[in-house]
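> example.struct
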């Protein structure tokens, strides 16, 4: 395994982060435990979850993933070996069954306490805001449309003050963002600097061969401000795996959950086939080439991989040992020019 530092912290994290959102929906508790056992044996020490999980978001399964991680901590006693990341759900969308008062002090207090209970731990190493409170473009929305009647009021400093309180209590150690735009990242940094408040360490956004939009504005922020990207969906919900090249399997996440249809568009399929051919020509699997590309980006702190079985997990973790040549990168960029960002 390769390791790096969580930016602006003393925490060493594996370059591969174990994503967990299928546990409680597509995976049972025992399967989740088996994945954690295997990942730790391979040197992975970084787990990512959220109070919203498992996915898709449902009242009946909300919090199930955190509970599975908690039961593994209790069974193995390995909490101190893991850097644990979780998230508070933002307002609206599919989380109305959780709460809908945004990132108020009351909401954050409730979310942290409930997550700690499910996770069977006293602290969360990296606590993230799952998506912005304000109206903006994320979760597959290409463009930004301003809403003049938007109810959200600027509260960047207020949120940081609340999170600072939990850091002082020892319930969380560091903070991060997710599904955030360059505007939001810079506003949080600005509020932190101006008011001597906790500084965000990471941003968890989608990033893959099918979605390189992070490079347009946010990558520069990452490099200049030392904010690490934790990319999710680096395989485009399975689109960047060989099993999807001949069609979409009925039991795949893309087929099961229509909300991720952006990975099922014709341009996504076209680009994936081109990347598949490039990988095959260079003696690589599509999945390992796709993951290795993400792993090699200088603004990436740790690549969040997920799997529904141990065979997939092994292939994904092993990508950390794949180094893409300059010639392969050139081929990837040529395809990107022909079919840019088909799955934003």
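> example.seq
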């Amino acid at each position: 395994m390769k390791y790096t530092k969580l930016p602006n912290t003393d925490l060493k994290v594996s370059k591969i982060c174990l994503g967990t959102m299928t546990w409680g929906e597509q995976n049972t508790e025992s399967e989740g435990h088996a994945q954690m056992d295997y990942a730790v044996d391979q040197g992975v020490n970084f787990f990512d979850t959220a109070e919203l999980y498992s996915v898709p978001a449902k009242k009946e399964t909300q919090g199930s993933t955190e509970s599975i991680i908690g039961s593994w901590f209790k069974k193995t006693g390995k909490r101190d070996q893991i850097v644990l990341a979780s998230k508070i759900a933002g307002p609206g969308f599919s989380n109305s069954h959780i709460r809908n008062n945004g990132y108020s002090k009351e909401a954050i207090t409730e979310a942290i306490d409930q997550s700690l209970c499910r996770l069977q731990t006293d602290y969360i190493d990296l606590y993230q805001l799952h998506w912005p409170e304000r109206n903006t473009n994320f979760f597959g929305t290409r463009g930004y449309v301003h809403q003049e009647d938007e109810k959200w009021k600027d509260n960047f400093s207020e949120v940081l003050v609340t999170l600072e309180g939990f850091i002082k209590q020892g319930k969380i150690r560091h903070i991060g963002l997710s599904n955030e735009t360059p505007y939001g990242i810079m506003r949080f940094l600005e509020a932190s600097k101006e008011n001597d408040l906790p500084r965000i360490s990471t941003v968890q956004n989608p990033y893959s061969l099918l979605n390189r939009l992070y490079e347009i504005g946010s990558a520069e922020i990452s490099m200049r401000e030392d904010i690490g990207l934790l990319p999710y969906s680096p395989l485009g919900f399975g689109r960047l795996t060989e099993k999807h090249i001949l069609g979409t399997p009925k039991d795949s996440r893309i087929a099961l959950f229509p909300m991720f249809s952006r990975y099922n568009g014709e341009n996504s399929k076209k680009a994936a086939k081109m990347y598949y051919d490039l990988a095959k020509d260079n003696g690589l699997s599509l999945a390992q080439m796709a993951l290795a590309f993400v792993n090699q980006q200088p603004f990436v702190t740790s690549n969040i991989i997920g799997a529904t079985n141990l065979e997939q997990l092994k292939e994904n973790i092993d990508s950390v040992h794949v180094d893409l040549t300059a010639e392969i990168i050139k081929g990837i960029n040529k395809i990107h020019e022909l079919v840019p960002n088909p799955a934003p």
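> remarks
Residues 266-281 form the longest helix (16 residues).
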